[in-house]
Automatic annotation (TrEMBL):
Pathway: Glycolipid biosynthesis; glycosylphosphatidylinositol-anchor biosynthesis. The lineage of its organism: Bacteria, Bacillati, Actinomycetota, Actinomycetes, Micrococcales. The chain crosses the membrane at residues 30-53, 117-146, 158-179, 199-225, 246-268, 303-326, 338-354, 383-403. It comes from the Bacteria. It is found in: Endoplasmic reticulum membrane. The keyword DNA-binding does not apply. It is a multi-pass membrane protein. This is Integral membrane protein. InterPro entries: PIG-V/Gpi18. The keyword Transmembrane applies.
Length: 411
């Protein structure tokens, strides 16, 4: 999919290049362009990481001045390492006050088990292999993301969407010992299959995706909305009975997989609330131990950070602003199905997540919105976004990844 439209700035920049360069660019395969973007972005990001690692002091995860592999496996990287080596506890740990403590059940098994398999095959340790697996999946995601955006946007805009993905403020996480890179790869593949209506192939992708990062329930909602939309619009877009049954089945399957990890934790520990109690342990440092009441955590967080009534007002304003953004022309260009996913995932976060410094990481699955941000073709606008993205990486590394004393800003 290509577009003949271009801004004066873009046209001027293109015409300023030597003719042979323009010809070579046009003849370069799309995958080579994506790989070049990815490689250049990883050079920039790795440089920033190494600079910060060189000044990192002693911390709970590493000694001072850690190597790249050690620095890339701090924070939750240790939990994934524990899962890979030791698995999950059959008896939930308890705090001195009798509440469930933080434990490995909060971290799903697909990513650490894959790294564990490579450890057994290669004989290498966790740290370098975890970083390698994430890095490899980041390249796979970049390639798939271009093809996904190409289904809804012109080629040049799809390519710039990849640029934004690769230089985004949280892109360092794509080469750390976290499951996000693997998850985004699977999510991008699932969204491509959804747009192509290849429902049968979604079953294995969803099965793995749902045990990589919590996603099954949100994707089930997106699939449900997809089924309803196709049924309502079946006169102009035929929706045969076979496709109806298959699409509905995969939606139900996604919902079941969204609950599978809760059932697994229950089966192993004997506690029906093992998983949710474990997740609640992480927010206890902010608001103490409480029951999980859907759609209250954002307001609790608003009150904790900003007080009342300002916290409530800000949360409502954020919800309204997001709703308006979802109906803006650039976002509408992404098509119905991608907006269904973004809206479903946003609703999932609103229902269960307590906002704190990990919020930005939890927003990463909404990355199809980068396609909407990439729509304006003005050269100065695009250069500014790249510069802001790289500056945001440095800011995020300083605030959320680097450890300074008793750090309370987990990534």
């Amino acid at each position: 999919m290509t577009s003949s439209l271009s801004s004066p700035a873009t046209s001027a920049a293109a015409s300023a290049l030597p003719a042979r360069w323009r010809a070579r660019y046009r003849l370069t395969p799309w995958w080579a362009k994506v790989i070049a973007i990815w490689a250049l972005s990883r050079i920039v990001t790795t440089t920033l990481i190494l600079i910060l690692a060189s000044v990192q002091g002693d911390n709970p995860w590493t000694s001072a001045h850690p190597s790249y592999a050690q620095f890339a496996n701090m924070w939750d990287g240790l939990w994934y390492n524990i899962v890979a080596v030791s698995g999950y506890p059959s008896v939930l740990p308890v705090t001195e006050t009798g509440h469930i403590a933080e434990n490995a059940w909060a971290f799903m098994p697909a990513y650490p088990m894959l790294v564990r398999l490579l450890m057994l095959i290669t004989g290498l340790g966790w740290a370098p292999l975890a970083a390698f697996v994430s890095l490899a999946f980041s390249l796979g995601t970049a390639l798939l993301f271009y093809k996904l955006m190409l289904r809804v946007l012109p080629a040049s805009t799809a390519l710039f969407s990849v640029v934004l993905f690769c230089v985004a403020p949280l892109s360092p996480l794509l080469q750390f010992g976290y499951a996000e890179s693997m998850y985004l790869f699977l999510l991008t593949l699932a969204l491509m299959l959804l747009l192509d209506r290849r429902y049968a192939l979604l079953f294995p992708v969803i099965a793995v995706m749902a045990v990589t990062r919590p996603s099954g329930l949100a994707f089930a909602l997106a699939l449900g909305l997809h089924v309803i939309y196709r049924f309502v619009t079946r006169r102009r877009d035929p929706f045969p009975m076979r496709e109806r049954m298959l699409a509905a089945s995969v939606a139900v399957f996604s919902g079941v997989m969204g609950l599978a990890w809760l059932v697994a934790a229950w089966a192993v520990t004997g506690s029906p609330t093992a998983y949710t109690d474990t997740e609640l342990a992480w927010r206890s440092a902010y608001i103490g131990y409480q029951e999980l009441v859907p759609f209250t955590a954002w307001f609790q967080s608003g009150a904790w950070w900003l007080g009342e009534p300002l916290g409530f007002i800000v949360v409502v304003a954020l919800i309204l602003a997001f709703a308006l953004f979802m109906f803006s022309p650039p976002v509408r260009r992404l098509g119905v199905d991608l907006r269904f996913w973004v809206a479903s995932y946003a609703l999932y976060l609103l229902a269960v997540f307590f906002p704190q410094s990990s919020t930005f990481r939890l927003l990463m699955p909404m990355f199809p919105l980068l396609g909407a941000i990439a729509v304006p073709r003005n050269l100065a606008y695009r250069i500014s976004l790249v510069v802001l993205g790289i500056a945001g990486q440095w800011g995020w590394l300083l605030i959320a990844w680097g450890v300074d004393g008793a750090d309370w800003t987990p990534p």
